[in-house]
Amino acid sequence: NLKRVFSLALTGVMLSGMMVMGASAADFSDSEEIVNQDAVNGCVALSIINGRDDGTFDPDGLVTRAEMAKMIATAMNGGIAPEYGTKTTPSFTDIKGCWAEQYIEYCNNMKIIAGRGDGTFDPYGNVTGVEAAKMVLTALGYDAEAFRLVGADWDNNVNYEATWTCDPSLYDELGGVNMYNPITRDTAAQIIWNGVQNDTVTKTPDKTLSTGEVSFTYQSSNRTLFEVKYGGEEVTGTFKDNHMTNSSVKKGYITVGSVDILADLDISYIGEDVKVMYKDATGGTKGQLDSKDKIYGVFPTGKTSVVRTTVSDIKKVEKNGAEDTNKLKIDGTEYTVATPKAGTGTIIVKNYDTTGQATTAGGTGKDNAQAKFKALSNAKNGDAVKFILNEDGEVAFAYVVETKLGVVTAKTSEKVTIGTLGTIKIADNDVYEGIAKDDVVTYTKLYDQTTANAFVTVEKAEKVTGTVNGYKGTENIKVDGNTYKIFGEAYSAVTGLDNLTSVDGDVIGEDVELYLVNGYVAGVVQTSESATNYSVITAVKTGGSTDDVFTNMQVQVLDGEGVKSILTVSADSQDVANSDDVINEDDYKVGDVVTYTIDKKGEAVLKMESQYTSPATKAYNKDTKTVGTDVTTNDTILFVETSNVDVDNLQNVAPSFKAYKIRSLASQDLTDAVVKSKDGKVLFVVADLAAKPTGATTDTVFGLVTGGGDTVKIDNVAYTTYSIYAGGDPITVNIKDGNTLNKGSIYGFVRTSDDIYANTDFEELSTTDTASGIDASKTIGSETYKVLDVLVQEYNEADKILTYHTAKGTVQGDVYTQPTGTNTRALDDKAQIIYVNLDKDEAGDEIGVNKYDVTTGRSNALLVCDNETTPSILYIFVETSGAVDAFAKNS
After folding, report:
1. pLDDT tens readout for residues 509-534
2. Strand order across the beta sheet in which 253-256 lies
3. pTM here?
4. Which of 349, 355, 426, 770 has the most other CB atoms within 10 Å of its CB?
5. What is the CA radius of gyration of the chain?
């Protein structure tokens, strides 16, 4: 049902609306092949039609005259097979022993059918559409003789009555079907369903007294066949809620008008008028729809004025050179904004959350309504919108389905975690098969914007790759000659998507990946080399020049990952200083930041991103994640000159630069800093701090010793070698002097370039329960860390918040009592989650940061935090086996 919500909402294609409790078209194994879903649903609900024995409906199967007789007879008898029996001498010569003999006799007795004219009925012959329509007309009370449904022109008269007298037409929804051909089961269901909704015809005798001749008057009974034969009733009301949109509605019920009824209906029809076909039940109010009644079906009347579109297709209307706030233009047509009625309460409903968490209050002022719709039109994206028009054709309400872009950060057999969404259970939501970590996806939260209470649909995001040819502001981007509209301005703010870039002049000519939401670009990832190649110049070759054959121009650079490279500079590089087309040491200096690509000659084509000039003190605020007024991102780089050298002498000494992701650091002043920002986001900072920045942990590694103890020789020196798992590929460390590490223990150490260490370089992590829940006790290198083993209570991926216990509960017999009191800590933006199996001393499965097992009461995580007053979590080691008390070896 929810799959159909999005097909309807995003494409505007009208799909089946009728849903009933019990059997329906969806129950057939070939349901997707059924065209007339409403009709099949209705006929199944009224017991008029059944499926095949193999579980299919067989919509393309041709209908025999015997099958048609059975369906008509059942409808005429209120959904029950008529107990008419069979005659000793059948009415037709070829029906004796036929499975449908009693149905044929019933219909013949009711003068609904006639034979072939030669005494036969031809039960196994196919029925045409006109023949089927004649049967339905006679079942409704159209006398074959009186309405000339027999004789030479019988077919023309049948078509006339079926088309022009019947309401709805018996041929409604069957455009393109040739009624003179044998019909399919799908078509037969539609003809009968149309007939069920038609008024029956009554036959009234009129006796002429002078002659004794009796004539008959035929007129509508003003009661449908459904009402007459099933004792049913029909009522029209507005579809307002189901149990997902309103918690006060019982599961399996929907609200029509002010009544909750046991039925289901595609949520995409919310806000529209629907017809309810029901039968009064004992205990309810007679002649009035109530929750006790038997519901045969609910389906849209089609009489509600609805406009389906996307947000970007909502345009403003200009009048005399100014905006006309009283109107909206939707897909080229102008609509007046309605004045909200008193008590309306909502103008815009988002993601079917009618409880108010995602609605925009309307009030009663027209100005307010205009402002709400105007704000919606400003969004400029591909989100689906359904506008409800009032009786005057004015825009009164809007239902919006919002879809967002995200990245899968963790996946287990039961759960999936998506960037800003958080963690959801796969079985409880609509998640595509084969979803995996690092997938880029689109997701929609329905009914409730609290992730834990929402129903979430997740689809793999559509991706386009190519080279950027150009762009137009924030409206569109052209890639490989094709133009794609941009999803508002959200393309540069997708959590977890690496190498995101803004759409501007710098991206022209670059290779990119476009991630689309409803056909609109919501994420632009630059894949060409210069995308991530912000590098600070750490040395410049003296006397080098690009026009000197023997003394070429060279620079040493440090990239954002801390890797140094020596580059031979191409003459095609940006000429910074003299515009003389010669690149030399005057153009690029130590402290400058560049991007570059490597040409076919292996030379670096440099582009200046910032010069190290006019440095000033800037403040980094960890809480707001800002430098000055600009916000940092997960990829913002801080290049730091850490030696005790005055900044003015950088060009005359060998500086010592290091690179950090700035969000991994503590709040601090950045002295002598140069900041490069774009669109209010900090790209990088160069600073001279004369020391490592506060909270820098770039060189520190935490990991589990999974094996080793062997003696090896390196440069003829003996070492003891160990394998350490720190997430990713194992790290091999070599310890001199025969010292050892404990297998199954977690250590912290400052990694060296050659992975050769002394035993004192490793700090085994141990923990102590304290009142604050954190033990500040471990110094690794020059940094202090706080370490604790815990029992995880809850992890909120969206907010990056961990709630945990520091003390264990109590066990009495088989009963475990949960400890009282919890601690709550935030994860650092670049916090690392490492899964370890301490039962086997190896890497563990990525099971997510799960709640501890309350049946055992074992601690299941080790936290490594920074040394701030309010610590942030840098690492979470998750014990995955559940077979041991986590980190007992370190306690």
Report:
1. 888 889 998 888 888 887 765 445 68
2. 259-262, 253-256, 233-242, 273-279, 294-300
3. 0.58
4. 349
5. 38
